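Entry: Phosphoribosylformylglycinamidine synthase subunit PurS
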Amino acid sequence: MVFKAEVRVELKRGILDAEANTVQNSLQLLGFKGIGEVKTAKIFVIDVSAPTKEKAQEEVEEACKRLLANPVINNYSITIK
């Protein structure tokens, strides 16, 4: 069975997000007064062939640990559909 995994990778709290800071400042300069905190995130959409949803979750979890996220600076979440 083929499952679709969505992995969202974000910086941990306290890690400088320079890109988000630049975007936030630029939005304010452009007159967007209601814009609050801005954060960046990467989203990976991955097709996973596995016999069960649980096995697909395990496979994607391993991919996150080994490549997609740096545990020192990133948090990640996985959604399997």
